[in-house]
User: Fold these one by one.
Assistant:
Number 1:
Amino acid sequence: MCSASSSAPAQGGGAEELRSTVLQLRESVLQQKETILNQKETIRELTAKLGRCESQSLLDALPNEAKPGGRKPGGFPKNTMGDLSRAPAAETLHQLGQTLQALKARLENLEQFSRLNASGQGGSLKDVLQSKIDDLEKQVLSRVNSLEEGKFNGKNESEERGKIESTLTSLHQRISDLEKGQKDTRPTDRFQLTFPLRTNYMYAKVKKSLPEMYAFTVCMWLKSNASPGVGTPFSYAVHGQANELVLIEWGNNPMEILINDKVAKLPFTINDGKWHHIGIAWTTRDGVWEAYQDGTQVGNGENLAPYHPIKPQGVLVLGQEQDTLGGGFDATQAFVGELAHFGVWDRKLSPGEVYNLATCSTKALAGNVIAWAEGSIDVYGGATKWTFEACRQIN
């Protein structure tokens, strides 16, 4: 705008129009800031009420159908795609509160992005989103009040959960649409996937399948404080074997890697709400495996599906465990948290190569089978993609 003004000083009308536009944008930004500050106050009130609600003994009488810990046996059990999550009411409310705060942070990020890019369209869309968040907060507050007064029974508690989760899904999608405006300004690998709730409908699907592999390394960044168990960061199913390659932490069990339904327990400790880099390397020769956390080897073993090559032409899903090829998701096994830089190699990486990935070294290798790229992953059910740069978040 400064360049345009200096090149045509005689065009006073054009300069006045530019100044008017700048003033309007500035006023819009100030209004958005005021709205966000008001919403932060509402969130603090909501969080306090959620804390009080969790301490109420009335919650002990609400339905709790969470499954006991343990790995699901092989085969193809009941398809639960149509079920809603059955987390206890207090846990669900806590998750909703965390989700709303995450949405606030994303809107603040979008407000800053729009200000830097002077996007009037982005501002109008944010107004709509903020209005939807206000409505959602009212629903949650109403639900908290009803719980405190003991008004909920199992049926309407489930109905309310369904309504709120549906609204969240719609809201996530609208914010994702707005965030697409940032894609042209960032590298294609600087994004993360967010799974805010334990459901059986939020997931991501890798467009590319795996080839036949006699060795592999799988690495990724994870952030979660879900309990019990962070769920299933990824699962790979093929015809005739839903557990061809699965990483899962279910119930109170340690995290496990499954290969052809054979299991090894992994000594990971990652559900502290912080970003962690994990890696698993394996070879079919004697079924030897190593586990890495934050660049350091923390475990190893052998006889894990020895001499069984990973089968090709399957379905690779992030965030859910597959009981059937590409489906049969169970909410109790869903991943809750954030995931980024998922990569697959068709060989065992060396400890030094894994360390380079965990420390964001310029020498870090991209996956030669699956590389982390925004165009290679589709998201469903309200799972979202948004800007993430591992080193900036970790350091």
Number 2:
Amino acid sequence: MAKEKVCLAYSGGLDTSCILAWLIEKGYDVVCFMADVGQEEDFEAAKAKALKIGAVACYVEDLRREFIEELCFPAVQCNAIYENVYLLGTSLARPVIARSQIKVAQKEGCVAVSHGCTGKGNDQVRFELAFYALQPTIKVIAPWRLPEFYERFAGRNDLLDYAEKAGIPVSSTKSKPWSMDENLAHCSYEAGILEDPDVTAPSDMWKLTVDPLKAPDTPEDFTLVFEKGLPKKLITSKGKTITDSVELFLEANAIARRHGVGRIDIVENRFIGLKSRGCYETPGLTCLRSAHIDLEGLVLDREVRALRDQFVTFNYAKILYNGLYFSPEREFLEESIVASQKNVNGQVRCRVYKGSFIVLGRSSETEKLYDASESSMDEIGAFSPEATTGFIAVQAIRLKKYGEAKAEKGERL
């Protein structure tokens, strides 16, 4: 009688390698799934490892373009940011990974999908909410929430011992001081020594970016061109023009990485209610978002920008962070993002230097909300200073009443 199949999100690391062996031990045929979202990974070696452990098949899906065009660029369009600091690098990758894993599971006739997310993190929520939206009848096996698994493997050392007994080759050691997750947008670091929020992250932990103190003494300039809020062109300091979305993103990453741009160290609020310390490197996305924000100052209507910031930006980031990408509210917000960005066209001249992103100038050939003669202190232009007297008088009506009421009560403003 044929065994039931499970599609496992596999990384080649210690946790998922042990989960693979454990699922086989439980009597399943396991199909491994790996997503290439731009992480520096030897996929062929990981695939060979999965098959050696006993997987019946292993898929490696290239999702980089999908990741950039469907997730990263819309995040740039609305300046998505979580708790004012986190650019959502991990959150952005989860929808495309989950969607591709479900496609593989359907193709292979799997009754369940499985993952190696911990029972205390956000990713278990992100993946599983996506799975259920994409295939409502799917079964999910989450080993780190099953007592028979987490009681058997109480910590990393137990996994290493199991791997050794099962003949699973692993590169991890018992002294590894943190965990990492990498994709094209960022690299995250958490757990281990980082769980103490007052412990300074070691200088050798950062994988993607040069230490800003050791970055080049000469700044590097480049230009970003946007159409309808989307990055469409990057012109390097040597005059090379890049228009392909993946190549543009890779070049923005390369420029920012060699100048130490995009590092943050934060304590954030996880969706499940716990606080967590995380360190993140988000080089290229930091530059793209910052340039986009700057261009909006030139071309975007004030009230449209305010409404977008207050409602769309905050809620879109929250939806991404909490794993609600495959939801009606996300579809609604993305339509609002597109509507807000139809006039965000232009170019931003940028500079990176020792960890900093600097705007040198911005311009637009199509949008004319900015009028230098009206704003100038050196000429009157079409704007009459006398008109401001009436504007101030109207704005002051309410405040005068407020001041009078305070005075009557003897209260000090």
Number 3:
Amino acid sequence: MPMEKRPGNVIPAWEAIPVVDLKGGNPNGEELATVVEQIIDAGKEFGFLQVINHGVPENVINEMMRVAEEFFDMPIEEKLPYYSTDLSKLPRLHTSAPGKEHEEVSYWRDCLKLACYPTENFMHTWPEKPRKFREALLVYTMEVRGVALKLLKLICEGLRLDEGYFDGELSGGGLVTSVNHYVPCPDPSLTLGVPGHCDPNLITILLQGKVNGLQVLYKENWIGVEPIPGAFVVNFGEQLEIITNGMMKSAEHRAVTNKTASRTTIASFIAPTMDSLISPAPALINEKNPPLYRSFLYKEFFASFITNIGDQEHVAEGFKNKTS
């Protein structure tokens, strides 16, 4: 990569990303108030958190990671039918970042991108190999979507929004999963697995696996997110930042490589429908807190994100009110 974009040999700080215990996925009473407060605080400070005791069975997580790793271990000729540079095609196996496959500099990543929800619409498109891939992804998709929807309801509780504020179009754009694979890199100081970016969607649930690589920009420093067995990394997308009028951060993050170990991660993205109207929630707007963002259709934002990936400081800046 160009000198100014290389990660170099700087060791990231290990400022602890908050870990929230969801108490088996169903906190109640005093536990609920504590969990809600922790989620809101993490969103305001970091835009990231990790959740444990989220209610997804360990065997579901392990089986999904197993078939994901097996997919990338298959011979090239068995993966090749899924390879495409057509951004509209799903499932799609690609390298680097979307739209960057033919550029002189590529990112150190292979990615299998899948449309996953509603499952009945897409299951027939998923890879048949390795064996049980479809079955594992079906169960995993439903479980992870459930975690995301629970978190959105807890955020509503913390911000005093109607419990179902994110239901319908704001979270109804389906669920897309990116299975990312980073092979060992001879010199990690020269490249990135994924460039620094903010997710354009509403909320993302990441199964990080056992190998370090995720970094979050916090107070102008890159901090590493330590893998926790069985935990999910949760980050808030730019639509959540906009809807909460800047209260919940969408933090820039990236993936770095390493010399010794392959790394596989599974990211599940919950997004609005493309024609969904996005704007700050009226309940969060008053004279002291005017709307920071204009209203727009999600498809406008997503198009801007794709155009500027790898280059944007923060795509949402283009959607801010001129007077804010």
Number 4:
Amino acid sequence: MALVCLTDFEEYAKEHLSKATWDYYAAGADECCTRDDNLLAYKRIRLRPRILRDVSVSDPRTTVQGTEISFPVGIAPTAFHCLAWHEGEVATARATEAVNTCYITSTYSTCSVEEIVAAAPNGFRWFQLYVYRDRKLSEQIVQRVEALGYKALVLTVDVPYTGKRRNDIRNQFKLPPHLKVKNLDGVQVTESTGSEEYGIPSNTLDPSISWKDIYWLQSLTRLPIIIKGILTKEDAELAVEHGVQGIIVSNHGGRQLDGGPATIDVLSEIVETVQGRIEVYLDGGIRTGSDVLKALALGAKCVFIGRPAVWGLAYKGEEGVREVLQILNDEFRLSMALSGCRNVAEINRNLIQFAKL
């Protein structure tokens, strides 16, 4: 049977991955309300298609931070790709290079940043960063990825502590012994309690991180800094004031604070606050091309997919990730055309009608 939509890949992955691995990727925090609402929120939004607009030619290209990508969907940072496919992040990097879109490499990769760059030397990549209690460790990683040609730093700001993911606790989830967090390999993480959480010593992340650390990060690098994990207009305004170059509206796939909003539901207030001063992106809940269209209509410059990329890996490695991206590209172009849009510049708020509750 051909896999024709992203949920087909989800079903395949659920059948073929081990229970502990599936549960790890699927997990939300606590009761998973926010995880599930990320998807349901799109179904509450209706489109207002325009007709007789000559959509014989369509162009889904856009730019992010000045770099052209083939369509406005990139790969969000997700951990441990080798759990889904033996080549792991190397396969993800090759797929995104082939499709010509942006791949945000996770700190928690099971391939090193060097291996990823070697596998896809012409790929367009950003690097997702956490701030550690040991700041020297963060500094070393920033220097490594800047030297390797990564084009931006994506600072994840919604994990002062890790959310409570019940199935991971039940399964006593641990990385298998043959895998490790390669980017931290051989690095002594100080102040550890000796226990491990998601492949690195617990207490590695710094819960004291604050807005002043944005200035510290800017002092280390010339790369653009994008903050991932903003859900309010107040924090969006602070991000602009602190001179960052972009925001990813994100609730960490519903894996951190349960009971927070779906990302698509807060996108408008953030876009209105930012007023074009910096680019706004979004992740969480994107499963179809029309979801992409809705997010762009509400002001996102680009969206990023997390779990669906992992499902593609589980299906067929590099080829599977390419298929997932190609399906989204095809669906997005079709939704654009059926709504009367010939290019991304024609996608705007007039396309959106919120469903009557």
